[in-house]
């Protein structure tokens, strides 16, 4: 819809859509005199003036005034509160002594919000998505008509889709999107040619959140905290984190990137981040050149600088919580009731079911509840379930139960391979060892997410047990150094991981702090 008053006062309505029984959204633009003050109002006839709950403006280079010196053009997005089923709805733009009116109920007005959002300049849609992520009052836009991505569904469908990592993608030699179990995201757009000096990278994301275990996840725009984007000699990079309070419900992410290379050249990417361990994420941050091409001049130094920045941000965010989770002494279990929850990690071999069937009494003697994690968890669990003497949990239920125990009670942690070796030696009791108290369980789960060197939880458990035995530092962290022997800046990364794993270990005994909750998927590989 287009309304003309004169050469300096005009009004365009691109779309009007109903968000709910009492809320509507309006896309449009205004052309107003440069020297006149401007007001926008929406009325519902006899029901009076409608409150404008959200108003944002943006450039509209596609609309050019007859005399740019006399008039200025602005696009707008309005969210308005309306009476239920209003019979009249008019938008007025007043500039000086003149007013332009538009009937928002006119049949000629576009009402397809999906189409209108996708057909807008993509900068506008990207900016609106960022506003929705930062303002919960705009959540209805993201849930519009209960479609995934809401009003942005068609627009998201048009964006080039990246799954994890790809070469020769969207004018870049290599593009990579990674996500860590701690809710971190890293985007790397690497080129073989110098990056323009004014190039910038912006990001926003949808998180797939489930309200409760087993419920279908819903795509919700989420803000990125501590977003840090930087231009390297031949790359654009960005690092950020999600609010830890969201991670318990997080089932997946869709990262939307806007790379502004130079005036008039902008690239959008819809990235589905690939799950990565902390070393993999740091390795990607330190590698500023594509794998398939010679490194541009200065790439190695620039990558090292970015890696230092990411490490500094990680330590500022994570060291305080790790220090607060400093485990109390194992002696705290003495004199109290021993833990009655057992955990079998690394149950990956289906043949192990027979072994655990024969030795089930060892677990039944020591526990009431058994958690089993691994690729063959269901087979191993069946060996105990047939006997009916233990509550046996696997998969997401086991991960949730372990998190519930963290900070409150202890567990008997048993590695499946270690247990088999102990049975073969005729000493199955050796596999149980000293139980982990509640603080150590909390510390284990947190360290696995923030500083784990493998996707499997047994790796972090073994590392924690070495810390408990107060092994010399060169023994505790040698596996890290070996793992990083061929990666970017191994000494820098090893020192960072040492600081995380050592945080709070010398602290005086204290009540455990609240445990950050991480996605169950981060625990299910053990």
Give the arrangement of secondary structure elements.
Elements: E1 2-6, E2 9-20, E3 23-33, E4 38-43, E5 49-50, E6 52-58, E7 71-81, E8 90-95, E9 98-103, H1 113-119, H2 122-134, H3 139-142, H4 153-158, E10 161-163, E11 165-169, E12 172-179, E13 184-190, E14 200-209, E15 218-222, E16 225-232, E17 235-241, E18 250-262, E19 265-272, E20 274-275, H5 278-286, H6 299-324, E21 341-345, H7 352-358, H8 360-366, E22 369-372, H9 377-385, E23 391-394, H10 395-405, E24 412-415, H11 416-424, H12 438-451, H13 457-468, H14 473-483, H15 490-502
Parallel strand pairs: 10-19, 12-20, 21-22, 21-24, 22-23
Antiparallel strand pairs: 1-2, 2-3, 3-7, 4-5, 4-8, 6-7, 8-9, 11-12, 12-13, 13-17, 14-15, 14-18, 16-17, 18-19
Helix pairs in contact: 5-6, 6-15, 7-9, 12-13
Radius of gyration: 29 Å
β-strand number: 24
Based on secondary structure, the structural category is: alpha+beta
Number of discrete domains: 3
Helix segment tally: 15
Quote the average pLDDT: 85
Low-confidence stretches: 327-335, 507-526
Gross morphology: elongated
- Helix proportion: 25-40%
Q: What is the beta-strand fraction?
A: 25-35%
Distance between the first and last residues' Cα: 59 Å
How many strands, which pairing sense, and closed or not: the largest β-sheet? Answer: 6 strands, mixed
């Amino acid at each position: 819809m287009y309304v003309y008053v004169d050469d300096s006062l005009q009004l365009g309505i691109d779309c009007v859509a109903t968000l709910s029984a009492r809320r509507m959204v309006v896309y449009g633009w205004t052309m107003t005199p440069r020297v006149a003050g401007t007001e926008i109002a929406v009325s519902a006839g006899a029901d009076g003036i409608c409150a404008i709950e959200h108003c944002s403006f943006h450039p509209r280079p596609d609309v050019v005034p007859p005399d740019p010196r006399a008039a200025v053009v602005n696009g707008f997005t309005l969210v308005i509160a309306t009476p239920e089923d209003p019979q009249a709805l008019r938008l007025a733009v007043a500039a000086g002594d003149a007013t332009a009116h538009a009937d928002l109920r006119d049949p000629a007005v576009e009402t397809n919000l999906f189409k209108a959002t996708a057909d807008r300049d993509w900068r506008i849609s990207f900016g609106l998505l960022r506003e929705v992520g930062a303002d919960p009052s705009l959540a209805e836009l993201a849930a519009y008509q209960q479609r995934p991505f809401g009003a942005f569904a068609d627009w998201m469908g048009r964006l080039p889709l990246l799954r994890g990592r790809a070469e020769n993608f969207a004018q870049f030699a290599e593009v990579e999107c990674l996500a860590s179990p701690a809710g971190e995201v890293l985007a790397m757009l690497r080129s073989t040619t110098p990056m323009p000096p004014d190039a910038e990278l912006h990001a926003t994301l949808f998180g797939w959140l489930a309200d409760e275990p087993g419920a279908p996840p819903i795509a919700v725009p989420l803000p990125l905290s501590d977003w840090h984007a930087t231009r390297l000699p031949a790359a654009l990079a960005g690092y950020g984190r999600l609010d830890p309070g969201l991670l318990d419900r997080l089932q997946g992410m869709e990262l939307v990137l806007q790379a502004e290379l130079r005036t008039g050249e902008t690239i959008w990417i819809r990235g589905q981040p690939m799950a990565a361990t902390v070393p993999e994420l740091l390795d990607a941050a330190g590698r500023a050149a594509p794998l398939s091409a010679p490194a541009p001049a200065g790439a190695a130094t620039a990558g090292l600088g970015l890696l230092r920045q990411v490490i500094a941000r990680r330590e500022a965010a994570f060291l305080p919580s790790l220090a607060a989770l400093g485990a109390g002494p194992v002696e705290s279990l003495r004199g109290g009731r021993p833990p009655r929850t057992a955990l079998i990690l690394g149950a990956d071999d289906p043949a192990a079911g027979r072994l655990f069937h024969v030795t089930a009494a060892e677990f039944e003697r020591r526990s009431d509840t058994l958690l089993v994690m691994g690729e063959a968890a269901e087979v191993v669990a069946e060996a105990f379930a047939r006997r009916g003497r233990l509550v046996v949990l696997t998969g997401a239920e086991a991960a949730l139960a372990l998190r519930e125990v963290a900070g409150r009670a202890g567990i008997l942690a048993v590695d499946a391979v270690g247990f088999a070796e102990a049975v073969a030696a005729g000493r199955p009791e050796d596999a149980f060892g000293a139980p982990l108290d509640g603080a150590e369980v909390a510390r284990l789960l947190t360290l696995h997410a923030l500083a784990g060197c493998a996707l499997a939880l047994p790796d972090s458990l073994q590392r924690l047990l070495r810390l408990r035995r107060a092994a010399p530092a060169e023994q505790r962290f040698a596996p890290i150094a070996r793992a990083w022997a061929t990666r970017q800046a191994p000494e820098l990364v090893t020192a960072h991981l040492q600081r995380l794993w050592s945080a709070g270990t010398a602290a005086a005994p204290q009540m455990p702090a609240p445990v950050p909750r991480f996605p169950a998927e981060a625990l299910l590989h053990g």
